Amino acid sequence: MWEYSDQVRDHFENPRNVGSIENPDAVGEAGNLTCGDSLKLFLKIEDGVIVDAKFKTFGCASAIASSSALTEILKGKTIEEAENLTNKDIADFLGGLPKEKIHCSVMGEQALESAIRNLRGQPPIETVEAGELVCECFGLTDKQIEKAIREKGLTTIEEVGEATKAGTGCESCHEKIQEIIDRVVAESKEKPIRKKLTNVQKIKLIDETLEKEIRPALRSDGGDIELVDVEGDKVLVALRGMCKTCAASETTLKDFVESILKKQVADDLVVEEVED
Hints:
By secondary structure, this protein is α+β, with helices and mostly antiparallel strands. Helix content is 46%, strand content 19%.
């Protein structure tokens, strides 16, 4: 039998913020009915601050407690602060979760990410990945497991189980999970696994890359570049000096900046020049 903290019991027996919000500013969903858990998160936002958060959950005691905790944590936070929240923050708020139930807090993190994408008009992240069924107990495919390994930098069967539930049932899929881990790790020797960045982390890394690797090359030719904003995967920059007037090389310059940012920060970044 699993040991639950007093906080988990409290949030399960007396869940906060259950229900939906009329005319929400953002809605996010996560989970998989095949493995028994799902979460729908509703957010009300005013001037960039989350003023209300509610949820509907189908799942176990840990799923309900994690969802309740998430809504309590979110109230009063800015969207930027919310982006920094991880499943560990949810688990810590509850005084910890059994390792077999960590996936419930992961579901909260995923629902929050889905809600923020919804707020920004970005397409939802696919929750079902086509592929070969690996974990029959929880209906998880090799594509889903591989995605979790790459995004979270998982390196052991235990970590995969905590993040996805894969392999935590009958354990007959452990060999296949290990094969996926070994393949991803082998590929990472050529292209390292990148953990998912929050928006704050992404902006910081982009700014550092501009300063260390891009500005020196541009300044040597009498130009410069300034980071204006980051909107999702779109990097808005303003050109200065010779770079500003060199229209003939605009495409080449964009490709130069974009290629370095893709290599150092994230593969899906797109650079756009703006007037400021």
